Amino acid sequence: MKAKATIRLKFSSQRDLSIVLKGLEPEVEKPATLRSKASIGKSGEFLILTIEAKDTVALRAALNAYLRWINSMMNVLEVAKGGL
Question: Is the pTM of this model over 0.85?
Answer without folding.
Answer: yes
